[in-house]
Amino acid sequence: MIGKALEEFFIRIWVVVKLTLIFWLLALTGLFVFGLGPAFKVVTELYLEHGFDYKSISVKQAYQIFKRDFLRANIIFWLYTSLSLLLAYNLYLSVQLQGLLFLVIDFILFFGLTYLMTAFEYTMIFDSQFEISFGNLLKMSFISNFISFKTYLKLLFGIVLIFVLTWQFKGMILFGLIGLLQVYSLSVTKTWRLKVEEQLAE
């Protein structure tokens, strides 16, 4: 019983490591600037399709997905990155100003940043799971945070916790960050994704 549990634990660890290494390999293939978005999409789709079946997760399939979704994944990634940088810059300017009004603005901008972070996760997950137009993909991702606010909080808390752990243990950046992030995100959003799937099937 303990041996089986340990085997399952190490399999899950290896899947997280394998997904993260595939991410960095693909990101490097796209010279990072054009590789981060597609690599993120690949990791999401691989785990969504294979789960913890580590033998089925292959570099060959990863490259196929990378090439197939290269343009679309880059558009998604840089759209969210641009919006996040815009909000972050405005937040940087706002925190330097005093007053209650600017405190409220700080809060709104900070909420906007966290909202974009979770919306990006939803976008990558939905794009990996469903065949959907780009416009509807963005709409569904943005409204998901409001419709399932509990899931939004779980997702946000988990992402922040993973980044804090990564800050403490820098080795996770290379061997665990992205894999752990997507395994957690897909796990937390599973119930909501099933509801979305039912709605799209009707």
From TrEMBL:
Protein name in the entry: DUF624 domain-containing protein
Keywords: Membrane, Transmembrane, Transmembrane helix
Record-linked Pfam families: DUF624
Regions crossing the membrane: 21-40, 75-93, 100-122, 142-165, 172-192
Lineage top rank: taxon: Bacteria
Lineage of producing organism: Bacteria, Bacillati, Bacillota, Bacilli, Lactobacillales
Gene symbol of the encoding locus: ypcB
InterPro entries xref list: DUF624
